[in-house]
Amino acid sequence: MVENRDWMYNAPRVSVEFINNVNDFLERAFANEAVGDEICCPCRICCNRFWYSRDVVYDHLIVKGFIENYYDWFFHEEGVSSRMDVDDNNEEVDDVADDAQDNLDGLLHDVFRDVVEESPVNQEDDLSDHEERLTKEAKKFYKLVDEDKQQLFPGSIWREAIPEINLPKSYYEAKRIVKDLGLDYKKIHACPNDCMLYHGKDGEKVACSKCGESRWKANKQGVPAKVLRYFPLKPRVQRLFICSQTAESMSWHAKERLQDGKLRHPADGKAWKDFDSNHPDFALDPRNVRLGLASDGFNPFRTMSISHSTWPVILINYNLPPWMSLKPEYFMLSLLIPGPQSPGNNIDVYLQPLIDDLKELWEVGLLTYDASSKQSFYVRAALLWTISDFPAFAMLSG
Ligand SMILES: [Zn+2]
Ligand SMILES: [Zn+2]
User: Fold this and answer.
1) How far apart are the CA of 52 and the centre of ligand 1, in A?
2) How far is the CA of 270 from the centre of ligand 2 (A)?
3) For residues 334 and 312, what is the distance between their CA atoms, to the nearest angstrom?
4) How many Å apart are CA 350 and CA 307, to the nearest integer?
5) Which ligand is nearest to the CA of 197?
6) Which pLDDT score is estimated for 182?
7) pLDDT exceeding 90 applies to what percent of the chain?
8) CA-CA distances (angstroms) from residue 173 to 166, 176, 183, 391?
9) Residue range 346-358, pLDDT digits in tens
10) How far is CA 113 from CA 66, 96, 233, 372, 377, in A?
11) Residue 383 alpha carbon to ligand 2 centre in Å
């Protein structure tokens, strides 16, 4: 007989009914599925990801309630812990999975919007015929959708032996997925003395036009002496508008920011306001991206090679609310300038590909799809300021 568990969502969480039932749940969970004196917490926040003791789980369930649709306690009850069996014949569990799936599907559809519109899958088409007509982009899209549909961990993910994991099998494969999503980087060869990049019109040269140093390592034809890694800015700006929530947040500084004269965000400051009055056409569309550039050297080898210094250049997106703009996931790593010495005043050589992109974004703009308004527009970008310590400030100004 199926047990009625409506109390999980219908009973007020301070009611005797809810509290008694939570105690009953904990009794059973600890009898069946505890490891040591902990179970994974099925509260709305932990979502069965974190393990806690009985007291903590009790508090979480009373304060936050259960994770949605957790009628089948598949992490907490004997007999249903093998999740695959439950999935096959239980609609509610499927619903939960579907919800998560919808978000990922939506994201992929947004990323490859043009592809999806151009190549609707017609059921009556001969499959091989259909595959032949797909563009390279479309193939990438369907491949990613296909991979996205696979469970990462079949079966119960926590304690049973994992028969097969659908995570990328190698570093190479993981890199391919990142590349297909348009988030990879370019390697640009550089003169070992920081004079020039082998980039654009100099792309084919084999020796530095300033100091004459070879492009290649001594005695190693084809192995570059120095490599700059550039993470192209334009696809990253486009990605910001592909997720509808992030796209909306890009106008936060104009639409939702509390304007009461207090300083909380760069948009409250004088520099921002002066910029707006000097460039009214740019300020007109709040989606135009305002960036800060930060750079400093660090030693990736800690103390093993004291003098080595690598310089990452990071772009910070100030359109976003403060609780997003300074989170690592919204920082954009733009350049990785290799060591062993600091690039010094020659940092401008390395900034060149970024500056080219910034110029284009400032002067021309970039056709971008905005998922929140479901329209394409030309986004522009401006670099408002740089953030550095004084030695780096000298380099950036130089
Ligand atoms: Zn919890
Ligand atoms: Zn040189």
Assistant:
1) 8
2) 42
3) 7
4) 20
5) 2
6) 67
7) 27
8) 11, 5, 14, 40
9) 888 999 999 999 9
10) 36, 25, 20, 14, 15
11) 28
CB burial readout 93-107, b (16+ within 10 A) else e: beebeeeeeeeeeeb
Q: For residue 46, which ligand has an atom nearest its CA?
A: 1
Element (H, E) at 53: strand 51-53
Query: Would the pLDDT of 202 be above 50?
Result: yes
Q: How far is the CA of 207 from the centre of ligand 2 (A)?
A: 8
Q: How far is the CA of 214 from the centre of ligand 2 (A)?
A: 8
Q: Hunting for tokens 């401008």 — which residue is that?
A: 348
Residue pair 81/107 in contact (Cβ under 8 Å)? The answer is: no
- The rounded distance, in Å, linking the Cα atoms of 392 and 386 is 10
Ligand nearest to the Cα of 202, by number: 2
Q: Which residues pair with 369 in a beta bridge?
A: 376
Q: Residue 359: which of 376, 383, 337, 377 has the closest Cα? A: 383
The ligand with the least distance to the CA atom of 55 is 1
C-alpha Rg value of the chain to the nearest Å: 27
Whether the predicted pLDDT of 10 surpasses 50: yes
The model carries a pTM of 0.62
| Closest ligand to Cα 39 | 1
Please name the residue that has the structure tokens 């010495």: 341
CA atoms of 297 and 311, how far apart (whole Å): 4
- What are the CA-CA distances from residue 75 to residues 32, 57, 285, 314, 380 (Å)? 10, 14, 49, 41, 49
Q: How many residues does the chain have?
A: 398
C-alpha of residue 190 to centroid of ligand 2, in Å = 8
Identify which ligand lies nearest to the alpha carbon of 192: 2
Angle at 276 between CA 272 and CA 280, to 5 degrees: 170
The pLDDT of residue 85 = 37
Tokens of 360: 């284009």
